[in-house]
Amino acid sequence: MAEVSLRKVIKRYGQMEVVHGIDLEIAHNEFVVLVGPSGCGKSTTLRMIAGLEEISDGEIAIGGKVVNRLPPRQRNISMVFQNYALYPHMTVRENLGFSLKIAGKAREEIDRAADEAAQILGLTPYMDRTPGELSGGQRQRVAMGRAIVRHPDVFLFDEPLSNLDAKLRSQMRIEIKKLHQTVATTVVYVTHDQVEAMTLADRIVIMRDGHIVQTGTPLDVFERPVNTFVATFIGSPAMNLVDGMAEGGAIRLSDNVRVPLPHGFAALAEGQRVTFGFRADNLMPLGHGLAETGEVATLELPVSLAEPLGAETLLLAEIAGKEVQAKMMHPRPVSPGEVLKFQLALDYCHLFDAESGVRLERKRDHGTD
Amino acid sequence: MKRMRRYVRNNAVPLALLAPAVMIILVVVLLPLIFSFYTGFTNYRLIRPESLWDFIGLRNYARVLTDADFWAALWRTVLFLTVALNLEMLLGLCLALMVNRITWGQRTMRTIMMFPMMFSPILVGFQFKYMFNDTIGVVNNALQSLGLSQKAIPFLVDRWLAFGSIAFAEIWMSTSIFAILILAGLFAMPRDPIEAARVDGCTSWQVFRHITLPFLMPFIYIAMTIRSLDVARAYDIVDVMTGGGPAGRTELLWTLIARTAYDDARMGRANAMAYVSILLSIFFTWFFFRKLMAARQHLGAF
Amino acid sequence: MSRGQRDFLIWVATFLVMLAICIPGLWVVLSAFRPNGEILTKPAVWIPRDLSFDNFRAIFGLGDNVVGIPVGSYFWNSAVISVTSTVVAVTIGMSGGYAFARYRFPGKSSAFLWLMLSRTVPGIALSLPLFILWSWTGLIDTKLGVIIVYTAINVPFTIWLTEGFFRQVPRDLSEAAQIDGCTPWQAFWKVEFPLAKSGIASAAIFAFLTSWNEYALASQLTRSTDSKTLPVGLMDFTAQFTIDWAGMSAMAVIIIIPALILTFLVQKHLIAGLTFGGVKG
Prior knowledge:
With 369 residues, chain A is an alpha+beta fold. Helices cover 23% and strands 34% of the residues of chain A.
């Protein structure tokens, strides 16, 4: 059993505090992804779990044991680095077997473990090559193989796919997911790519400026972002945000664009300033959307640009001088400047406080369902 | 004190790793230099140990700075360095460009080019003392055998000929470091800017002047910096070739220091001169290091 | 003129320049195998008639005409001094180079600059105080005294070279090794050292050559056969009434051979070390 617990973990470099008291409980066999923009402290947090960075304050426990003062080698973890960190002077076999050799294991045992790892990752034909003779994807596999041979309590991944091209990245994503299913182990995975976070994670931890902003399952954070930062960070294309004001049972986005107050927001004070958020998937031209049930608002908006993607077309429309993205299913050609009738699915809209950016929750008490 | 302790505690590992290096340099370089700085203000003579406490203030420096021999040696040293460094740079550049052009046997040529770098300065001095000798030297012998000169040319006796001979030896020894480093620069040079310049209609000379040379400048400055670290090696060459003579005609600052200290046994005054030579060396190194840094920034575009 | 012809001309010109560079050295080597009589003959003898190893036998005191200069002892002194100071300087310098390459600490860049500046002090200027201090401490005219000095003058350059080579080894390799179960000490020796090995070897050879060729300091700090090195010993020949050119040439060959071999071994790494230390800050 290897749960990982972070309790009030702080990291300072000199006077500068970069991680501000993080609390996080990671369950046994859970796949947790730390995601956030660069400089948010996610890599530092991972490196503190690994023992590569000292913990300035707080406590980290692995499998119930506090590891603050343990060097990396005594934490029974393994790590896949962004640049793979393969030992260039060793063959693939030696790379895979290095940790067991250091541990003083017998030759046969090392070979068996290396072969087994190679088998899982399809590296068997390359065992006698050095890292310099491998392609990017193969190096990535060796790095993972090196991590699994020791049967660690926790796997740590530090942006492992960021050096691969798009195609290889999605392929390796699948392999990592499969790997987690084969060798059930706790995983902490750091990335700045929200797609990776969504596809891989059991639970996503979104970080910003050394704080945890939100923790939840991929669907949780997608459907109920706690603030505008998470709303725009998770999901692609990014959520559209338009500033508005509550006015007479509607939200006024501009002089001529008003949206009825979505269900559950009736308590909004008159004149309250809000940020109105919706995703491109929920703003579609009339007749080119999915059959929507629930509340729908209709808006007439000019289109400034169309990006055909084949199955759908991304449209840039304008609300109050601000560009928002919309999606058109079963596309037809659209010329710039054309004014289209759009349908907005109000059930999937979000409201945030205009000042703080914090999510405003729907209230059930007014509900009729 | 408290801050000091905290500094040591926070950086214990790198400080421990550096400690031996710092220690030995303190003992062998800094401590003696402090000592010699002190003796520069005394009338210290090797034969009279008690004169170490004979404090005479700035009199050594005053004596040195009003000494015609000193100024002659200093001027000669600066001239020597200017001539030698510039010629080394030019010749090294030519050599590197030539070797860069050839394909067949390039590695061998490059190895031969490094040949003089292995020579101890004392050997270089001996070698040219032997070659330029007026009675048995190969240069005089060749000139006479070919009928170009009737009598022996006193290469190591005449003021300017001796200066030239010593400079020749110095240049022979040190050109290769320029050539090697400039060649490394040529190898590292990206092809695209040259091709772009060609397309833009530059002549070969313009390409060299505006593309190749600016790219090579940092490498030239590295070579200059490395060279200026040990310009004082010329002491060895002069010592073996002429010993500063005859009659002080080839005296460089460094040979003058040695003579004042060991032959005249005037340690105090020699130390005052030594400080001038140290400042000279530091100046040269600092000057080229600054140039190197500037060139590197300038090159950021590449 | 066609491109091929021009290339050929450049090749010939380069070849001639290289030949010119070699001639002084080759002339000394040739003289080392000729008897003094032939060297001194007037008019000059251009085609050697009498080549032998007699000069080498003589300077090692083996032949019929013995030279009164203990080249054997000098060689031994040079070897002991150069090897010892190189080993110590590389150990110390490697540790310092590693600290500069891997750790951040306040005052790092000025520390680096001061270490390098210590290298600029001219040997002769440094020899004055060392001569006095070494006389007081009894280190004058001992191999140990010279070894200490050579170690110190080799440390800065060794730091410079090894720092560059260690910086080329990615930091995460050491981290990966530590996660794989190594202590920091093991991680260094099993991963970082093997990768920087060739660079460290060239730093060592550079240090060796500096010690082997040094003259200004050794000429003042050594006096007797117990500690004199080969370059200092070479000057013994000039102190005599008539210069023994052939003997000097033979000794020159003995000095140059180890340097020659070692430089050939590391030429590639040496260039790499010198340039990336300076260019790719």
